Each structure stands twice: as structure tokens, then as C-alpha cells.
């Protein structure tokens, strides 16, 4: 009985995942947008041309994800994540010395390859291993720190750029990311509880709930990855990846309507703060209303956000509200997407299936960041981009609903 009163190690592993999200994607990815305008201006290039390095990062990340999924189970997780994080930080630090756009392209490729074990699948995979009970809550908390890290770091990095220059800004961002992440990767994180002789949280306490809430008889990966619902979600998650790319362009959008630099940085911070609240509540909403209702409602809110940004016409208040509502995109991307995957295919081969779907998410989404920048360079406005965003929201809803309906039939056929 005494043992049951102790804090389960799963919660400490969750803290490590929070640090990984805050210092990894939250800092190195979600804060990258504040560099686009000052760096492009300094180099005398277009934002679209510079943004291409982010596309290269996403492409390399996408193609590396299946390999990363296998590496997570094959190698010591502490060493793997520590090395991967160090390489990511050094790639960003190296940008402080660059003088030509092609150098960002090379660093972006390295960042994407190393980031495949940091940014996307690792925290959901670790949490799925460590939690049988409250997995939705744990997932929401961990992924919320992606937004928390970005919300905090965007104004800090923006201030560093203003006061120290963009070159020193890259050094500051790289150093902070390492300080946040490395201690937890070296001393706390473990891939699964069996590595330290434990059972997942909730496994012994409530076995009936585990059987009820976790579909251990899910669809095998070899069947799932060749099925219609997989193809539909592959495209739907790709659209979500494209939509996620707008966050990198928000500071440049602010600059395009003559917002002060600090206020432009707040566009991203507000969107990330909203995403934090969404990530913390989406698990509970999913339990009460179902993932279909949560996803559809969330995407309608994002569509409204794009509408507000179109009709803001330089009104800073409306632009800030639109950017804040856009933050729901991060909630759907970080929490709802893994839950949709689990709903569609169960948990039997969840990590493998999710890694392949995440590849599609980044593969299609990789082009979003640079395409958005190119469209802006051609039109001189972000309105066309925001109109496209509304269409993508509708596309995600239609494809996801179709995939879940198809997956229900596939489950019935597979179980028989």
C-alpha cells in the first residue's frame, strides 16, 4: 500500500517531455519566425527565399521520421535525445555566422534530420508508453509546453534581436534551448516504464478502465498503412502541417501592416498562449464530446481566425484577436491529431502508424511555409494566403470525418 502512495515516475517523465517540448519545438521551431524579416532584410533577399530553409527542415524531418521511430526503440533514449538536441542547437547557433541563404538551407536540413527524434513523435510515444490512465491529460500537458515555450521565447528572442542583433539572437536561442532540455534528457527521461522495472501509470490501479479506454486490439500497422482511412488521414494531416506553417509568418504579417516589432512578436505569443489552454482542455473535451466534435469545432474556429485576419485591414486589435484564435491550430495539430490516430487505428501499433502519418504531415506541410512567403512576395499581402487557409480548414474536416467513418468499418472487418 505504501508503494501506491508514492509519486509514480510517469509524472517525472511527463515533466521531462514538457521540457523537451518547451526547449525543442517550442523554442527552436516556434521562435524561428521572428528572424525572417530582420535576416531577409539584412541579406537583401525575399522572405519566401529565406523561408525555403524551413521547408527543407520540414522535408528532411518528414523523411527521417520512420527511421526515428525505429531508433527510439533501438537505442538508449537518453543518449539519442541528448545528441539530437545538441545537434539541433548547434545548427541554430551556426546561423549566427551565415552570410548567404544557401547556408540556411544546409543548416535547415541538419536541423530536420536531428529534429526527427525531438520535435514530433517522441513525446507522444513516451507518454503512450508511460500512461495507461490519464493518457489524454498527460498528452495535453506535454504538448501545451510546445506553445508555452514559444509564447515565452518569442518576445525574449525578439528583444534579443532588437538589442543585440539577429546574429546574437540565434546564439541566445540555441543556448536557452540546451539549458532547458539537456538536464532532463540526461537524467530523467526513459522510453518505457519496463526500462526501470515499473508498470505504466494506472496499469495496476484500474485495469478495467485500461481495457475500456485503450484499444489493445487495434489495427496492425501492416494493414493500417495500406488502408483508405490511412490515406485520407495522410492528406488531412498534411493540410494541418500546411496550416501550422502560418505561425512562422505571423511576425512578417505584422510587419506588413506596419506593426511595431514587439507587437508583431505578440501575434505569435498570443496564438501560442491560446494553444496552451486548448491543449490542456482538449483531452477532457474529447472524453466528453468525442474527437470528431472537437476537431470540427476547432477547425471552424481556425477558419474564423483567418477571416478576421483578412478583414483586419491594418486594425491591430482585430489582427491580434485573429492571431489568438489561430492558436487553436496548434491544439488540433499537437493533441487532436494523435487522438484521431488512436481513434482510427487503436493502440496496437500506434507509434509506428503515427510516425508514418506524421511523415505525411510534415511532407505536405513542408511546402506551406515557403509557399506562403512566395505568395506574399508576389501579391504584397497575406490576404490570399488567409483565404487559402479557410479552404484548408474545410478540407481537413471533410477528410478527417471520412477517415474515421472508413476506419470504423475497417476495425469491424479486422476484428472479425
Automatic annotation (TrEMBL):
Q: Where is the Major facilitator superfamily (MFS) profile domain?
A: 1-408
UniProt subcellular location: Cell membrane
Alphabetical keyword list: Membrane, Transmembrane, Transmembrane helix, Transport
Any one Gene Ontology molecular-function term assigned to this protein's record: transmembrane transporter activity
Q: SUPFAM superfamilies per the record?
A: MFS general substrate transporter
- Which parts pass through the membrane? 50-67, 79-98, 104-123, 135-157, 169-189, 228-245, 257-277, 289-311, 317-341, 353-376, 382-404
Output this protein's name.
Answer: MFS transporter
Q: Which organism is it from?
A: Candidatus Cellulosilyticum pullistercoris
Amino acid at each position: 500500500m505504501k508503494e501506491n502512495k508514492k509519486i509514480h515516475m510517469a509524472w517525472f517523465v511527463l515533466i521531462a517531455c514538457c521540457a523537451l517540448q518547451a526547449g525543442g519545438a517550442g523554442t527552436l521551431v516556434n521562435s524561428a519566425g521572428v528572424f525572417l524579416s530582420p535576416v531577409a532584410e539584412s541579406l537583401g533577399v525575399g522572405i519566401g527565399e529565406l523561408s525555403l530553409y524551413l521547408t527543407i527542415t520540414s522535408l528532411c524531418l518528414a523523411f527521417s521520421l520512420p527511421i526515428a521511430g525505429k531508433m527510439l526503440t533501438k537505442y538508449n533514449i537518453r543518449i539519442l535525445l541528448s545528441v539530437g538536441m545538441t545537434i539541433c542547437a548547434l545548427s541554430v547557433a551556426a546561423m549566427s555566422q551565415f552570410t548567404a541563404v544557401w547556408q540556411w538551407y544546409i543548416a535547415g536540413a541538419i536541423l530536420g534530420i536531428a529534429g526527427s527524434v525531438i520535435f514530433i513523435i517522441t513525446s507522444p510515444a513516451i507518454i503512450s508508453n508511460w500512461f495507461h490512465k490519464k493518457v489524454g491529460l498527460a498528452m495535453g500537458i506535454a504538448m501545451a509546453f510546445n506553445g508555452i515555450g514559444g509564447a515565452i521565447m518569442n518576445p525574449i528572442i525578439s528583444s534579443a534581436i532588437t538589442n543585440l542583433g539577429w546574429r546574437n539572437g540565434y546564439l541566445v536561442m540555441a543556448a536557452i534551448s540546451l539549458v532547458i532540455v539537456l538536464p532532463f534528457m540526461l537524467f530523467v527521461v526513459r522510453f518505457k516504464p519496463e526500462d526501470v522495472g515499473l508498470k505504466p501509470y494506472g496499469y495496476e490501479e484500474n485495469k478495467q478502465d485500461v481495457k475500456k479506454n485503450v484499444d489493445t486490439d487495434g489495427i496492425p500497422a501492416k494493414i493500417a498503412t495500406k488502408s483508405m482511412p490511412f490515406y485520407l488521414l495522410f492528406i488531412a494531416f498534411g493540410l494541418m502541417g500546411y496550416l501550422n506553417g502560418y505561425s512562422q509568418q505571423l511576425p512578417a504579417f505584422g510587419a506588413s501592416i506596419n506593426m511595431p516589432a514587439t507587437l508583431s512578436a505578440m501575434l505569435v505569443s498570443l496564438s501560442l498562449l491560446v494553444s496552451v489552454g486548448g491543449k490542456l482542455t482538449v483531452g477532457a473535451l474529447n472524453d466528453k464530446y468525442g474527437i470528431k466534435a472537437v476537431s470540427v469545432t476547432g477547425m471552424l474556429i481556425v477558419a474564423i481566425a483567418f477571416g478576421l485576419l483578412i478583414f483586419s485591414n491594418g486594425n491591430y486589435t482585430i489582427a491580434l484577436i485573429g492571431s489568438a484564435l489561430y492558436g487553436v491550430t496548434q491544439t488540433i495539430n499537437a493533441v487532436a491529431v494523435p487522438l484521431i490516430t488512436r481513434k482510427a487505428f487503436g493502440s496496437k501499433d500506434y507509434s509506428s502508424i503515427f510516425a508514418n502519418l506524421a511523415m505525411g504531415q510534415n511532407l505536405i506541410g513542408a511546402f506551406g511555409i515557403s509557399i506562403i512567403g512566395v505568395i506574399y512576395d508576389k501579391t504584397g499581402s497575406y490576404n490570399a494566403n488567409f483565404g487559402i487557409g479557410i479552404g484548408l480548414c474545410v478540407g481537413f474536416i471533410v477528410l478527417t470525418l471520412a477517415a474515421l467513418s472508413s476506419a470504423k468499418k475497417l476495425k469491424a472487418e479486422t476484428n472479425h
